[in-house]
Amino acid sequence: MHNNTRPHIAARTLETLKQLKWEAMEHPAYSPDLAPSDFQLFGPLKNAVRGRRFSCDNGMKAAVHQWLRTQPKHFLLMAFKSW
């Protein structure tokens, strides 16, 4: 992560990454606690439950479990390959 870093440290970090031939993955500043793989999961899940109201946590959990069961077996594999 290169957010909120001092410029000379960020430049040194970028140079080291370049020397090691590592790829820096983009990570939005507004959600530093999410891994890139989470975006492939939570975006479609959010769309699946959009507009629905749940009267309790168990109802929401059941909806999430149902949605996960309907995804193809290679769903997460495709997510990892996409980034």
Question: What Rg is obtained from the alpha carbons, in whole angstroms?
Answer: 18 Å
Helix/strand-derived category reads mainly alpha
- Find the count of extended strands (DSSP E, 2+ residues): 0
Note the gap between the termini. Answer: 16 Å
> Assembly type of the shown chains?
single chain
Helix/strand order, N-terminal first: HHHH
Q: Pick out the low-confidence regions.
A: none
The percent of residues in helical segments reads: 55-70%
Arithmetic mean pLDDT: 78
Number of helices: 4
The overall number of domains is 2
**Biggest β-sheet description:** none
**Which strand-content bin applies to the residues?**
under 5%
Global outline: elongated
Describe this structure in a few short sentences.
The protein has 83 residues and is mostly helical. The chain contains four helices and no strands. It has helices at residues 7-19, 36-49, 57-70, 75-82.
Structure description:
It is a single chain. With 83 residues, the chain is mostly helical. The protein has two domains: 1-32, no CATH class; 34-83, no CATH class. Helix content is 59%, strand content 0%. The protein has helices at residues 7-19, 36-49, 57-70, 75-82.
